[in-house]
Specification:
It contains ten helices and seven strands. The chain is α/β, with parallel strands linked by helices.
Length: 303
């Protein structure tokens, strides 16, 4: 069954990580997925990483969807405008917008107060993760609202409940991730007259390509990463949050979720889906009840 066959999706920031996982799962459900990013097989972004938008498109196609890569810098309004014009010309509609643009891993200075944090890096982080989402929504939403029932997913790190109670890494990072959650709330108000749904979604401790490298493991032997940090046992694949987004897209009653914030673990329980290993990691509950409570690593009851 391909429940999203005929649906047109844009995963803005789909080169790697959560964006790649989301694009793959939307494709597995039958959607046509436009995948944007700056890194192609012929050009590399400031990340200097090997993942490409074409690589994501290939995976979408392998899973039964239609993957269409489009090199786009979402800080350049003219490029985003051209992207949306292309989607409208080729498809005539846009049903799902996933704002997953980020690109700030190399800019983070952990647990560093604002007066010591690089101002240049901090402001660049804000531009990459806030301005990009605003620019993309400005150009994409007029196409999305042409048909009732569209879905917008704002991807972030942390749920509203968790971020409201916790300091997240640095003032810049904290502001970025809470701002995206607020964007979803604001958009839910503006799009409600068009019967569209907007939610913010966070993965848990995600085994992105970068995270696997940090821990010196691959997806095949990732559990060895627990030798470096035992709590790595709660981690999840990018496909897990991808399944979360695909589940929302298939939910005919999703408008009841409008403006709300969810984690992949919460949505797994709501929709009864599982990660690739058949588990349901509930990272944010684990963070509160195990990590922050100072208990030893033990995922029993959390996977």
């Amino acid at each position: 069954m391909k429940p999203l066959e005929g649906k047109i999706a844009l995963v803005a920031g789909g080169t790697r990580g959560a964006g790649r996982g989301i694009a793959m799962e939307l494709g597995a459900a039958g959607a046509t997925v436009y995948i944007t990013g700056r890194t192609t097989r012929n050009e590399t972004s400031e990340y200097g990483r090997p993942e490409t938008i074409e690589g994501t498109a290939d995976r979408v196609n392998e899973l039964g969807g239609i993957g269409i890569p489009m090199q786009t810098d979402h800080l350049v309004p003219e490029q985003v405008k051209a992207l949306i014009e292309k989607i409208e010309k080729e498809q005539g509609r846009l049903d799902i917008l996933v704002n997953d643009i980020w690109g700030g891993e190399n800019l983070i200075e952990w647990d560093t107060p604002i007066w010591k944090h690089s101002l240049e890096k901090g402001l660049r982080m804000l531009r990459l993760a806030v301005d990009t989402h605003l620019i993309t929504s400005h150009y994409a939403l007029p196409l999305l609202i042409k048909n009732e029932g569209g879905l917008v997913v704002e991807m972030t790190d942390g749920t509203k409940e968790y971020n409201d109670k916790n300091y997240r890494v640095s003032m810049f990072y904290d502001l970025v991730k809470t701002s995206v959650i607020r964007m979803a709330k604001s958009l839910s108000h503006e799009l409600s007259p068009y019967k569209c749904t907007v939610v913010s979604v966070s993965p848990g401790w995600m085994r992105s390509e970068i995270m696997l490298e940090i821990f010196g493991v691959t997806e095949e032997n990732w559990r060895q990463g627990t030798e470096k940090d035992p709590h790595f046992a709660i981690s999840e694949t990018p496909r897990f949050v991808g399944r979360a987004v695909a589940a929302i897209a298939q939910d005919e009653y999703r408008h009841e979720m409008n403006g709300l914030s969810y984690s992949s673990g919460e949505l797994a329980k709501k929709y009864d889906f599982y990660d690739l290993d058949g588990s349901q990691p509930d990272c944010f509950r684990y963070l509160v009840e195990v990590v922050e409570a100072g208990k030893p690593a033990n995922t029993e009851g959390y996977r």
